[in-house]
Amino acid sequence: MKKRILIPEVSPAILGFATVGGKREKEGPLGEAFDLIDTSDRFCKKTWEKAEAEMQRLSLCKALEKTGKKATELDAVFAGDLINQCAASIFGLVSFPAPFFGIFGACSTLTEGMILASLALQSPGFSLAAVVTSSHNCTAERQFRSPIEYGGQRSPTSQWTVTGAGAYLLSARPEAGAFARITALLPGIALDSGVTDSSNMGAAMAPAAADTFLAYFEENGERPEDFDRIVTGDLGEEGSSLFLEFLEQNGVRNVKNHEDCGALIYDRTRADVHSGGSGCGCAGTTLANRYLPLLQNGKMRRILFAATGALMNAASVQQGLSIPGIAHLVRLESPAAGKEEVWS
Amino acid sequence: MKKRILIPEVSPAILGFATVGGKREKEGPLGEAFDLIDTSDRFCKKTWEKAEAEMQRLSLCKALEKTGKKATELDAVFAGDLINQCAASIFGLVSFPAPFFGIFGACSTLTEGMILASLALQSPGFSLAAVVTSSHNCTAERQFRSPIEYGGQRSPTSQWTVTGAGAYLLSARPEAGAFARITALLPGIALDSGVTDSSNMGAAMAPAAADTFLAYFEENGERPEDFDRIVTGDLGEEGSSLFLEFLEQNGVRNVKNHEDCGALIYDRTRADVHSGGSGCGCAGTTLANRYLPLLQNGKMRRILFAATGALMNAASVQQGLSIPGIAHLVRLESPAAGKEEVWS
User: Fold this and answer.
1) Pairing with A98, which of A70, B124, B153, B268 sits 20 to 30 Å away (CA)?
2) What is the pTM of this model?
3) What is the CATH number of the domain that holds B64?
4) Chain A closest CA to B34's CA: distance in Å?
C-alpha cells in the first residue's frame, strides 16, 4: 500500500493570518476573533459576489499588514471558493501582483491550499506563500439552492454557509512570532459513498473525512489521544456523528477530542443553522480564530486539522449524480513544541 | 524584482499522455493524433456534462494504459475544467484511488497543473503525478453563453470551445520512452487589462501571455529564437496578433516561431470557428497531439509552452466586471537534448 502521509523536509511556518466575517459570524462564539466584520454582509459592494471577492481582498491585505509583509514578497497565492470558476478568489485577488493558483476543493480548499503551498515551499525558489479562501451565504444560496428572498424551508440536516474569508501566510523559514508549523500532509482521495441528498453534505463528507484520518492513524501508529484536538472542517452535527461512527467501526474508539469547525462557529441558541456551519469560510476562518492562537501560546501543542469538501454543482445534483466527499489533512504543531528540535 | 522563473532541482519527465476528442477535433489537422474520438461528442452519456466527465475518465485511463502504470501508483492527480465547481474533473476521476487536487485556471489549467505537479515531484514522497484537463463545446456554451439549440450569432472574435480532454503522466525519475522533461516553470500573475467583451477572450488573455513570456525572456536573457517554438494555449488569431504586438512593444521583435494551439487545432477551411479554438481541452490536447511527439523524436529540442486562461464566470460578465487573463509557462526539453547532462 502506497504511503499517504508526506513529511515535508522543510516544515512551513504559519506566520500570520486574517479573517473577515459577517453578522451571524460576529454573533458566534468566535465572533471577537475576526479581524474585520461587516454586519451588513455587504462590504460596501453592490452584489453578493462582489462582496465575497472584497472579503478575499480584505483578508489577504490584512494578513500582509499584520505580519509586516508586502504583496510583492509573495511567491504564490493559492486561492479558492465556492463561486463558479473561483470568481471570488479571482476578482478579490487580481490586484495582488503575485503568481496565482486557482484551486477547488469545495469546503476543503483551505487545507488543499496549505498542502500545495507546503509542497511549493520545499523548492528553493519559494519562501512566502498565501492561502486564501472564502464563502458567502448569499452567493452560495442563490448559486446552489434558491435566492435567499425565496425563503425556502431548510432540511434539519442542512448547514448554513459561512460568510467569511481567511488568509494565511506560510513561510519556508521559521520566523519569530509564527503561530504554528506544518509538519505532515495527507492529501485526500475523493470518495463517492452514494449520498444524493444535497441537504445533507455532512453525510456526503463524513466517509472521506474518516478515510483521511484513518489513513493517518494506520500509517503513523498514532491515535487521536496523541493530539490536543482532531479537527474537521464542516461536517456539522450530522456529519460529525457519522464521522465518529466510521472511526469506531474501524477500531478508533472513544474519541473525546474531536471538534468540527461547522459545529463551533455559530451560537446555536441564537442562530437557526440546523446542522451547523459550512463553506470554505468555515474552516477558513475557524483555524485562525480558534486554533492558531492556542498553538502559538502553547495551550495546544499538536492538532490534526482536515478541511472537508462536498464535491458537486447545481447541475450534477439535478442530473442525479451523488456527492463525493474529500478531506485534506495537515498536522499542525506549536512553534514552542519544536524549540528543542532542529526546525530548518 | 523578485525572480519569477523556477528551475526545478528534479526535472520531471512527461512519461506519457492520452487525448480524447469529438467530431470537429477529428476533422482538424491533429485529428489523427487523438487516442479516442467519439464523433457524436456524447461518449454514450445522457448529458453533455456527463460526457465531459467521461472524457476525463477515458483520457486518464488510456494514459495509464499506454505507459503501463496503475492508478494506485499515482501520488496525486491535478485536474480541472471549465464546468462549475470543476465537476467534469470530479465526476470523471472519482473512481481513481489517488489523492485529488482540484485546480482552476480556466484554459490555463494544463500548465497550472504541470507546475503544481512539478513542484510536488520535488518532494521525496512523490514519484508519479497525473495532470488532466478537459472542455466540451456543449457544456461550455450552455453554461457561459446559450444552449447550442438557441443558435446564437457568434462574434468574429469569438472562439470555439474544444471538445477534448488530455491526461499527462509526470514522473520524478527519467524513464525510458519519456516524451519531454520540464526544466523551468514560470507561474502566471492574473492581469486585468479592462477587457469586458466576453466574445473576445483572446484580447483578455494576450496581455497576461505577453507578461509571462516577457518575464521569462527578461530574466533568463534568452530570446524566442533560442527555442524551436514558443507556444500559447488558446489566444486564437485575434489574441495571437495582440500577443505579438505586446512582445514587439517590449523589444521582442520579429518573432517567427510563435504558434497558438487555438489557431492550430481546427481546419478553418472546413470549420467555422472564427478566431480559433479555446477551452482547457485546446492546449490540453494539442501539447500531446503535436508537440510531445516532436520533442520525443528530437525534431524539436526546446519549447516554451504557456496555456492561457480568461478568468470570469457568467455572473461576473453580467455584473459588468472585466476579464482578467493568466498564463502559466513551462519549458519543455527533448529527453534527447538532456542525454549529455545529469538528469536526476
Assistant:
1) B124
2) 0.97
3) 3.40.47.40
4) 27
